[in-house]
Amino acid sequence: MSPPPLIRIHYRRPPDRLQVFEQRLVHDADDVKVTLAEHRFGPPIVIGGEVVLETGADVVWFTFPGNWHDVGRFHRADGTFTGLYANILTPPVLDGPEWNTTDLFLDVWLYPDGRALLLDEDDLEEALARGWVDGATAARAREEAKRLMDATAAGAWPPAAVGEWTRERCREMLGL
What we know:
Blueprint: E1 6-13, E2 17-28, E3 33-37, E4 45-47, E5 50-53, E6 59-63, E7 69-75, E8 81-89, E9 93-95, E10 98-110, E11 116-119, H1 121-129, H2 135-153, H3 160-164, H4 167-173
Parallel strand pairs: 1-10
Antiparallel strand pairs: 1-2, 2-3, 3-6, 4-5, 6-7, 7-8, 8-10, 9-10, 10-11
């Protein structure tokens, strides 16, 4: 059996930052693409005073073709699940193993207990004030974040695949 394909996600953040993330594709369906980013994250990410992503931790990423967000299952380095991180972004353009998207600054954090928190509203405001995003794009980003927050409150988000594709399942698929 051949190894899962390597995906290169070109992640733009206005005005001029570009990061390229290389991740293994572990599940490829029409409605969701699941990739594993192994031990590739730098400084820890802290939300609400708690480290939710440590250096050396894996992240399972869910890309939903046509949607204005993706989702990461965050962990500590020991594999402990800490929550879900939804990036609000432009719908990704999937061109074989090369994917392209632009970050729209807002994020939604979902704690393991189901509480949701909207992040980085100030970053979107700054981007709008500096002309890095236009008014229509900023409005669309806000609409997507609100949609996720409302769906979470109604018990209709995240999608089932996010619960089914755990770090352990992805690592097993990759033979890790």
